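Q: What would this chain look like folded?
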Amino acid sequence: MSWEEFWIILVCCGITMLICRVVPLFALKGKELPPKMIMALNLIPPAAFAALVANDILSPGMFASGFWPAGAVIIAALVVVLVAVKTKSLLLCAVAGVVAYALLLAI
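A: My prediction, written as structure tokens:
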């Protein structure tokens, strides 16, 4: 890649970042959003987190070595979901997930 191509790509990335991140902030500054829009925007962080977690938990060949190694991960994830619904504490979710996974692998 030449330096000219590098600078073209860098400028295009910068413009894209500016358009996608900065312009909406200035365009919506001081304006009230409808309640349904706020509710929809509040769903973005949990959906992104769920997609990242699901990518680590579920994989195409997860049951290739048997049910138990993959089953332990899924059961530990269910424990984390139950703790999250009950406590809403990130720290307790992390501790419960690690403990559940360790106990399931020790069996």
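The mean pLDDT is 91.
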